[in-house]
Structure formats: structure tokens, C-alpha cells
Amino acid sequence: MARLCALGAWLWFRGAVAQQPDLDLGTLFEGLGAMQNTGKGGKGAARADACPAGQSPVPKLDQHSRMMANGCGPQGLVIKEPHGLFRCCNGHDVCFSVCGTSHDFCEDQFSKCMQEVCQSPLSGEHQECQKQAHSFSSMTKVFGSGFHKASQQDSCHCVPEDEAGKKHREYLETFYRLYNESMLDTDTLELQLSKWKGKEAELYFDLVKKYGHLFVQFDDVPKEFVHVPQVAVHSRSDL
Ligand SMILES: *[C@@H]1O[C@H](CO)[C@@H](O)[C@H](O)[C@H]1NC(C)=O
Description:
Strand content: 5-15%
Bound molecules: 2-acetamido-2-deoxy-beta-D-glucopyranose
Distance between the termini: 20 Å
Structural class: mainly alpha
Largest sheet: 2 strands, antiparallel
């Protein structure tokens, strides 16, 4: 949830909490979200906006080297939570910087991850965990979309659609050359590219969760993510 404070939202948020400790933040943020969403392009708009017509977003070759994660809370201010949700917050932070994600995709992954963690929270407090998760989700849904858009602009190039395939191959090769050379043989690479064609961002997000401990800049938080497989099947061993 890095850099939410750029929006000035955080101070306001803390003020609201201090004045009304019983406030149901989830409900409050949902209300704000509903207000903010009227008059906007609707779901999936973030993706379409990323590049002009006829062009596709592809990752800059070094997109992963700029990724940062700081657990739950805006940059420089870690929210202490006893449930283990920081691993989901780390994932949410990097998701924004994976070229080609939509804001909705990142929010959806964030919720799924927290649901997973709240099934057996470190605190043992199942319900408290879910309340916290709900609060976090409501906050990022409302305040995250501008930041998501800015992160996409940092991470992506726009290229003509017919060059996108080549650029994705180039990116993936560069990535594996750095983090797992055994993936570099041509067949493996081609197979992966064809399997993820059109949803490369989901592959890249998976790769960040798998190899991110090697390159993401973690600020005052353990270098951990939760791997929630894209294709259903939630397995505890992936935590
Ligand atoms: C590298 O990729 C291979 C599959 O080609 C996998 O078995 C191995 O675990 C990976 N290495 C690391 C460090 O993740």
C-alpha cells in the first residue's frame, strides 16, 4: 500500500480514526468508493487507458528493479497488524508496478490473498482478521486507482500491437537471465509465452511473488508474499 499518503488521504484517515474510534471504516470507505466511481469509465478502464489506440503496454526491461513493498500502510508508516496480512500488502504493492495489470485485478488478488491468510491468521483471530482485511480493501479500492495508473506509466512502454509479442519475449528472457537461467531454453520460454498470451501481466505478477525476494526493495517488512495460484486450488503449502 505504499505511497497512499501521496494523496493526503492518510492524514485524513488517521484523523477520522482518532475522532471516532468506533467508526466502521469498511462502510465509510465503501461509501466514498461508490461516490468516486460514479462518472468514471467503469471496470477495466485502467487497462484500456494505459496506451493509445493500436498500441499495447509492454514492461520496461527493468520494471522489476524499481519495485518496492512495505507491508500494510503508506510508505514509511507500517500499520501493525497481528494477522500476517503484510504478505498480502506486499503483493498488492508490487502488483501496481507490474506492467499490464488493471487496478481491479490487483484489488481482487489482494482480497483473495487476505481471505487465504484469514483462514488461519497468525493471531488466531479469524474475525478480527477479516475485519482488518475488509478495512484495507475498502481503503485501497478508493484511494489506489490514481496511484495504480501512475505506477503503470512508470513500468510500461507502449508499442504497436504487432510488436508486443516480441517485446514480451525480450522481457521474459531478460528476467530469467537474471533470476533463473534454467528457464531460458527456447521451448520452455515459448510454451510459457503462448500459455499466457494476452494475460502476460498475470504471469509477471506470479514471477514477482516467486522471485521478488531477490529484487524487490522491502522497507522494514519481511521479504514474503502469499502465492495464491491463478487457477483456483488454494493450497496451504503455498503460504
Ligand atoms: C528455476 O526453474 C526451474 C524450472 O525450470 C525450477 O525447477 C527451479 O526451482 C527454479 N529455481 C528457482 C531458484 O526458483
